[in-house]
Write a structure and sequence with these properties.
globular, two-stranded antiparallel ribbon, seven-stranded mixed sheet, homodimer, 13 helices, 9 strands
């Protein structure tokens, strides 16, 4: 294990993945190198759920939605007759995840993510992060980011990369806390979105969340979202599931620039969760893992490559 | 006229507008000031057509579209039977601008902005900027940005503001040249968009432009676009027409942060164009101008306030 003061990635054990990261950055950040990347092209995209923090036992935003449903149902008892609400309250994720785009999950998110102003939604998200605790770790959800990935974010930023979250999660949900938690400003978040409506009320301008023009930033939607929001092809892509397969391809295949793909493989059931083809949450990983050797994508073996998973763990 | 080496806005004549800009920046950028703006909140949004460059005799992107139509029609003669194509080839802007959202113009843009890959579209835009000349000035379109606004962009950036274009123009169109022309990176462009489709071809990953989910970033769409792409309320907003009215309101009304609105009023028919309520192009300005005094929005009198309009003009 390399862990000196000068090591930018102290939570990473020495090995091919850590060496691969360091070697890539060394070759692209060095002026005069044949692989030099102009700073403008240093665009790094990261999936969030399962890549920067866990997505078990369910995506954190789903936990927020279920808690919100429980809070709303007191005032709107008729919600309880919705089969998807029933599935949510029973934490029956498999029912919610049926269909190509997790339609049930989207239905529930919709019930808890629309019909309020953007300020009201932000306040609800902030309140939830203050009060909710992860069922396994008993800690606030936003303390559960992966320390090695936090180090990677900072290391790449220090080397001139712009970090962007590119997640299936809601952009409005993430933008409440990404700056505080990852040091990434809200405008560098590409997520699932729906359109708001603008009106000028007596109290001032108001944006109200709707479900119109829902854009699900997952699978083939990720390169689409990257183009729509960033407008430039990334040169680094980090993901953990087949939801990230398309953006790994978009980043690395026939890219005229040097490029880099990384997959976080969840192999550590003791400290975190172990899954790939079979998962009870989101995060199924089959196709991208199979293609990784051919494409040169580095696969993080969480158990082997990370000496720390969460901050405040004893090292 | 103030024009010393230390003057950050030498193309601006001394007067209430220039003093208003300098005073606002001085109060918000000074640590310890009661009006201090944390750097994260220094978000400045700018309309493009009519604010950073002319929108006469027609928006530059419309000129691009018409030139492209002429280029395409050789291979697709049936296009000529489309009444909107006929209007375009006759440069009948008033017909194209009928309807709440300029439906005719959008139809023509659609014919010239969809059905090709994003790379092909980028190449077409680049080629056009190299070859096309503005009918009045005889210069490449991208040399016709307003020098005073270029100075404002640089001055605000030097004071920690992030500059974002928020334009009714197409995001894909603008992102080709914004970095070169304004020093604004592609991801800081909020524009009209439609969804692309992603596929992996033998040649590599490809995004194809479609017309689906068209989002027109104009009028009430501008605050909506700002929320969707930036995710944070701006504190500076510069526009020139009623298309910018909603984002001026969104930026300045009941904003808990210090905020600043500016309207470029086209009063200089000699050096540029003179219009407000009556215009043959886009850029109608009535409501926002009427509300400016009440809201404290500064109104640039182009003839009075700018000693230079375009770069390379003799001073």
């Amino acid at each position: 294990m390399t862990s000196t003061a000068a090591d930018p990635l102290p939570s990473w054990n020495d090995g091919p993945v850590k060496q691969g990261i360091l070697a890539f950055v060394a070759k692209v950040a060095k002026e005069g190198s044949p692989d030099f990347l102009p700073p403008a092209e240093r665009i790094a995209v990261y999936d969030n759920d399962g890549t920067l923090w866990p997505e078990n036992p369910m995506p954190f935003q789903a936990a927020f939605a279920f808690d919100e449903l429980n809070r709303h149902i007191v005032n709107e008892p008729k919600l309880a007759s919705d089969p998807m609400v029933q599935a949510a309250l029973a934490c029956d994720l498999s029912k919610l995840l049926e269909g190509e785009h997790f339609d049930g999950l989207m239905r529930v998110l919709a019930l808890t993510h629309a019909g309020m102003t953007t300020d009201e939604f932000r306040d609800a998200v902030e309140a939830w992060f203050k009060s909710a605790r992860h069922p396994r770790y008993g800690r606030p959800y936003d303390e559960l980011t992966y320390q090695p990935m936090q180090e990677l974010l900072r290391y790449l930023q220090a080397n001139g990369f712009k970090n962007f979250i590119v997640s299936g999660g809601g952009a409005d949900f993430m933008r409440v806390w990404v700056e505080r938690v990852y040091g990434i400003p809200p405008e560098r978040v590409v997520g699932s979105t729906a359109r708001t409506t603008f009106e000028l009320r007596d109290s001032g301008p108001v944006l109200t969340k709707t479900l119109d023009y829902l854009f699900v930033n997952d699978k083939a939607g990720k390169p689409v979202g990257i183009h729509q929001f960033i407008g430039r092809r990334p040169t680094i892509c980090c993901g953990n599931s087949d939801g990230d397969y398309a953006m790994l391809q978009y980043t690395t295949i026939n890219n005229p620039r040097p490029s880099f793909g990384l997959i976080v493989h969840h192999t550590d059931g003791e400290r975190e969760f172990a899954y790939d083809a079979e998962t009870k949450s989101t995060g199924r990983l089959v196709e991208a893992l199979k293609e990784a050797p051919k494409r040169g994508w580095l696969v993080v073996d969480m158990k082997r490559d990370w000496n720390t998973v969460f901050l405040s763990e004893s090292k």
